[in-house]
Design goal:
CATH superfamily of the largest domain: Succinyl-CoA synthetase domains
Structural class: alpha/beta
Distance between the termini: 33 Å
CATH class of the largest domain: Alpha Beta
Largest sheet: 7 strands, mixed
Strand order of the largest sheet: 3-4-2-1-5-6-7
Number of helices: 23
Helix content: 25-40%
Shape: flat
Radius of gyration: 31 Å
Strand content: 15-25%
Number of strands: 30
CATH architecture of the largest domain: 3-Layer(aba) Sandwich
Length: 706
């Protein structure tokens, strides 16, 4: 039986989401289990939960001063939600009883479901929940609504209440605990530990918290999603409501990547497809846990910059130099003062300081609040998108010495509408009282210079993406279907693969398929020299590796001799492909398609030919796609420099390249239901106005050979 979230009907999903809202706004909770429940009940009391709390346990007189009921049948009313901490078999039975009673939501703390016994127990748990119960977990710590003081969780995770804040959605209970326990001044409105996603998946949680206008941003810690289409729809809903999402995806190493037949398969693993999905939806993807925290802090405090230009003030040449290095690493522009601005800056900084960005005002000016503010405000006369002060508080005994710089930054914020940041060198370099002092004045404290500037750079890089998505009416949520599950695949030879390409509107070299060496020589004479000779056969997917390709053959006798040698020396030769040689390429690219069970059809484009494995210079898109997305992907490649004319070489036909990629996308959508994988390598980009031509291709389709 398939109980996975992607098999759920739209009606069941809608009911479950409504019931999840009931859980997050519960007015009554029942805890089912033993002494472990004590922490959950105590947390309700400490949080100030105003609803009814019941505890069911036949073996205890009371738990946390709440009288225990012997069974669920003894409840005085049907609760809004239940929290279960029982062994797996008893948790399944309790879930079924709760569902029968009409309890709308259940949090299952228990582990030991999908993790063992091939997931049989998790299937049983899903079946017990039925079609409408909003089951959180299993294998989770629970969910907390800080806005309304509703905790359905084990342990104490703080009681601070915010009028506006972030929603944290994580598959890891440890991550949620670390986030809420971090010393980062994060306003947290929801903390949702979702565990195994047995019934509710990440899309459900995103959709529900996006309906709360108090949510300023959403944090995702993702090990894996179960339904890419539902995820896309939920993320698009959040985007449309102006709620940005920041995601940290676990599991991006090479280990465990699927081994595939072609370059496209081996270079298009799940991490790349997750990034392609995130880019499509305007989700900010970060590289580390601490970067995640700093990025969402910027968003939570409404400090997104309009662009990537940052004006920085420091008191150290070391800090200034390191900021410049980090700015280059993270795509941050440091606008340099020019003309009158440079002269004005020179007039207000110490004589030993240099009028540039970052501006090192030196320790000479460090305790002068007015001078500190004046120098940064002067630097901001050069157009910028944000301002930052780099500072690191030492031991408390010196704190007063550093406060003038902090207060100067507050003065700067009072005189500019730009986002303003104070960035500490080390994460622990901004004490809590200083952070709160800054936040109250509208200045964002960022902890750790690397993470702070990385977070700024990633958000700034997404600003153009967000503008483009808004102009397009929101993110594209459609994804093509995955494989149909036929169980067999067919790898086509190059001749058949190119016939498929021609049907899709992609040019290939003039050529013929022949059976033997004499016929190859005759075909070459008809085509005109020079020619390319390739041995063909279904087992010859990577012909260059086995010597099955000969380039630049200039006479018929040579063609015949080379063909005969291939027949004699290479196993699996079923014939020959003779083609006119294309020798005017500006650049060689790889373009590939791959059908994935989760993401549908993805497209890869990158440096091709001999550079494919060497450079691994590739970009990924999910289909269907747009001209703008294809262009951005092509322009983001290192090899794009060749396409625009490099060292006197002619520019390539970029528009023809984009046309070819879009033609492939359109053809797959309408005629490519059987496609599993397509590898065009290389696709030769000729000079502007002369188009592109696919000189090698490998097509893999679903189903047995015909």
């Amino acid at each position: 039986m398939n109980h996975s979230p992607e098999s759920v009907t739209a009606g069941s999903r809608a009911i479950r989401r409504a019931n999840l809202k009931r859980l997050l706004n519960a007015r009554s909770l029942v805890f089912v289990g033993g002494s472990a429940m004590r922490g959950g009940v105590r947390y309700c009391q400490e949080m100030g939960f105003e609803g009814d709390v019941w505890v069911v346990n036949p073996n205890y007189e009371d738990i946390a001063d709440i009288k225990c009921l012997p069974s669920l049948k003894d409840l005085p009313a049907t609760p809004d939600a239940a929290f279960i901490a029982l062994n797996p078999e008893r948790a399944i039975a309790a879930t079924e009883e709760l569902a029968t009673m009409g309890v709308p939501a259940v949090v299952c703390y228990t582990a030991g479901f999908a993790e063992i016994d091939e997931g049989r127990l998790q299937d049983d748990l899903i079946a017990a929940a039925g079609d409408t119960t909003a089951l959180v977990g299993p294998n989770c710590i629970g969910v907390i609504n800080y806005f309304d003081r509703v905790p359905a969780a084990i342990g104490n995770h703080g009681v601070e209440r915010w009028d506006r804040g972030i929603a944290v959605i994580a598959q890891s209970g440890t991550i949620t605990i670390n986030i809420v326990g971090s010393d980062r001044s994060l306003p947290i409105g929801y903390l949702l530990s979702i565990g195994n996603q047995a019934v509710l998946d990440m899309a459900d949680y995103i959709d529900v918290v996006a309906d709360d206008p108090r949510v300023s941003a959403i944090v995702l810690y993702i090990e894996g999603i179960t339904d890419a289409r539902a995820f896309a729809a939920a993320a698009a809903k959040a985007f449309d409501k102006g709620i940005p999402i920041v995601a940290l995806k676990a599991g991006i190493s090479e280990t465990g990547r699927q081994i595939a037949l072609s370059h496209t398969g081996s270079m298009a693993g799940a991490p790349e497809l997750y990034r392609a999905l995130f880019d499509r939806l305007g989700i900010i993807s970060v590289a580390s846990f601490s970067e995640l925290l700093e990025a969402v802090k910027i968003l939570a405090l409404d400090a997104e910059p309009a662009g990537n230009r940052l004006s920085i003030e420091t008191c150290s040449g070391t800090d200034s130099g390191y900021c410049a290095d980090l700015a280059e690493r993270y795509g941050i522009d440091l606008p340099q003062p020019e003309g009158a601005v440079k002269e004005a800056l020179r007039a207000v900084i110490p004589p030993i300081a240099t009028p540039m960005n970052p501006v090192d005002v030196t320790m000479v000016q460090w305790t002068d609040r007015e001078a500190q503010a004046t120098s940064l405000l002067t630097l901001l006369q050069q157009p910028s998108d944000a301002a930052a002060l780099i500072i690191n508080f030492p031991r408390a005994v010196w704190k007063d010495t550093y406060m003038p710089a902090i207060d100067a930054m507050i003065d700067v914020k009072a005189k500019t509408a730009l986002p303003c940041f104070v960035v500490s060198n080390l994460a622990e370099g901004l004490p809590q009282d200083v952070r709160e002092h800054l936040i109250a004045a509208g200045v964002v404290p960022l902890q750790g210079i690397e993470d702070g500037l990385a977070a700024f750079g990633r958000i700034a890089a997404h600003v153009p993406c967000w503008h483009a998505l808004r102009e397009a009416g929101g993110p594209e949520t459609r994804l093509l279907d995955g494989p149909r599950g036929a169980g067999t695949t067919t790898a086509h030879d190059e001749w058949a693969s190119k016939a498929w390409l021609r049907d899709a509107g992609i040019a290939t070299p003039g050529g013929r398929f022949v059976d033997d060496a004499d016929a190859a020589a005759a075909a070459a004479r008809d085509l005109g020299f020079p020619v390319v000779l390739k041995a063909a056969g279904r087992s010859l997917q990577h012909k260059s590796d086995v010597g099955a390709v000969a380039l630049g053959l200039n006479d018929a006798e040579t063609v015949a001799n080379v063909a005969q040698a291939m027949l004699d020396d290479i196993p699996g030769v079923e014939g020959f492909l003779v083609e006119a040689m294309v020798s005017d390429a500006v650049a060689e690219l790889i373009v590939g398609l791959r059908r994935d069970p989760l993401f549908g059809v993805s497209l890869l484009v990158g440096a091709g030919g001999v550079f494919t494995e060497l450079m691994r210079d590739v970009g990924h898109l999910l289909l269907p796609t747009s001209r703008e997305a294809v262009r951005a992907t092509v322009e983001g490649l290192k090899i794009a420099r060749l396409l625009h004319g490099f060292r006197g070489r002619p520019p390539g036909d970029v528009e023809a390249l984009i046309d070819a990629i879009l033609a492939l996308s359109s053809y797959v959508e309408t005629h490519g239901q059987d496609l599993i994988e397509l590898d065009i390598n290389p696709l030769l980009v000729r000079a502007a106005g002369h188009g592109v031509v696919a000189v090698d291709a490998l097509l893999v389709t679903e189903g047995a050979p015909t």
